[in-house]
Write a structure and sequence with these properties.
Layout (H helix, E strand, L loop, with lengths): L2 H29 L4 H24 L7 H17 L7 H14 L3 H16 L3 H26 L2 H18 L19 H5 L2 H15 L2 H13 L4 H26 L4 H21 L3 H9 L1 H18 L3 H34 L3 H9 L15
Helix pairs in contact: 1-5, 1-6, 1-7, 1-10, 2-4, 2-15, 3-4, 3-5, 3-7, 5-15, 6-7, 6-11, 9-14, 9-15, 10-15, 11-13, 11-14, 12-13, 12-14, 12-16
Length: 378
């Protein structure tokens, strides 16, 4: 199967699952009897384990040829681990499953991006265009699950996740042509520690942690906050879907309108969007302003993420890309969000929507940090 079609299907399946999981998993946990502070700690612990999973799994990949077999194994293990949530809801069991599932399933995100960036090198794949298929699937899932929760209850969150994981497993076993491989003249893959020692990489990771970490309150507590404000599960699903519609438009515009911008310019745009979005969400739950805030998802997440992809594909040598992808997912998308999500869980009861104001402070450092290309000694 051609690289574009394979990646489009894989991103669609992964983000369909993510569209059921990310907006609604806190509601599923609430539905089995957990309180907001416990939910925050559980989600935070899951994000911390995600950090470890990304580093340990991605760190063991020795070359591009290993990407596809590891992806298939992770799909199998993800399906098995989520089945465990049907076996019981005792607090200790939920803790165990949360740690296991977050070690395995989220690692498929950097694996998918690593495959895609490899295809950018091998086939000049249009990353923005293929990634928008995932965003569209996220919309389908969040809208579908929102309606199912409203009509049938929170059990359908888990049912939908399992269906998506089964689909992703089947897609992962389709042949990918060309298969991922090291490019001609590429040096041996750099190690995680060696890559992290690069000052430019560390600066990039701080920027990514600042921008993506500021989404912690949104990912963990927007559904609970909007539900408390009187919005139905269907409306919450529509709001999340709207954010991803805006994301799709931005991904589609990447090559035509954004390709001339540097990683630094995209990071600055993302930081500016964070100030506006979290300010709106902290100030009001009026529907019209929530719509505006969700449209800004195209900037706060999408433009920031495109900045990260721009840095990794244009400003890094090929041998640094896989380890930097692992560090980006583990630090920028993992441990930072984990710590902040746990903090938001403790502060949500007294602050309610005020937790979104705190996210502005998290995003501010991105205005002063400047990524620079990595140059290896010859």
């Amino acid at each position: 199967m051609p690289a574009f079609a394979w990646m489009a299907l894989f991103f669609s399946a992964f983000y369909f699952v993510y569209g059921a999981y990310l907006p609604f998993w806190s509601l599923w946990l609430e539905g089995v009897g957990l309180t907001p502070d416990v939910i925050g700690l559980l989600l935070g612990a899951g994000m911390a384990v995600r950090f470890a999973g990304n580093l340990l799994v991605m760190g063991r990949i020795k070359g591009a040829a290993h990407l596809l077999p590891v992806t298939r194994l992770l799909c199998v293990l993800s399906l098995i681990s989520f089945i465990g949530f049907y076996l019981g809801h005792a607090p200790w069991w939920l803790v165990v499953l949360t740690l296991v599932t977050n070690f395995i399933y989220p690692t498929l995100m950097p694996m998918g991006d690593a495959l895609a960036t490899r295809m950018v090198l091998q086939t000049h794949l249009d990353y923005g265009k293929v990634r928008l298929f995932g965003s569209f699937a996220f919309i389908v899932a969040s809208t579908l699950v929102g309606g199912l929760v409203t009509r049938f209850g929170s059990d359908w969150i888990l049912h939908t996740i399992l269906a998506g994981l089964l689909l992703m497993l089947l897609i992962s076993w389709l042949p990918l042509n060309p298969a991922p491989r090291d490019v001609a003249g590429e040096r041996p893959r750099s190690g995680l520690i060696d890559t992290f020692r690069q000052g430019e990489v560390r600066r990039f990771l701080l920027i990514a942690a600042s921008l993506q970490g500021s989404h912690a309150a949104y990912y963990g507590f927007s559904a609970i906050h909007w539900k408390a404000a009187g919005y139905s599960g269907a409306t919450i699903g529509y709001l999340w879907a709207l954010g991803v519609v805006a994301e799709i438009c931005m991904f589609a515009a990447d090559r035509r309108f954004l390709s001339r911008f540097s990683a630094r310019a995209l990071f600055l745009a993302g930081a500016t969007g964070c100030l506006l979005r979290w300010g709106l969400m902290g100030a009001t739950t009026e529907l019209i302003w929530l719509v505006v805030a969700q449209l800004l998802h195209s900037v706060t997440f999408c433009v920031s993420h495109l900045g990260a992809i721009r840095f990794m594909t244009r400003e890094l040598p090929p041998e640094r890309q896989i380890p930097t992808q692992a560090l980006y997912s583990a630090l920028g998308l993992g441990i930072t969000v984990a710590v902040l999500m746990a903090l938001c869980g403790q502060l949500y009861a007294p602050l309610q929507g005020g937790i979104f104001w705190l996210m502005i402070l998290v995003a501010l450092p991105a205005f002063w940090l400047k990524p620079k290309p990595v140059r290896l000694a010859t």
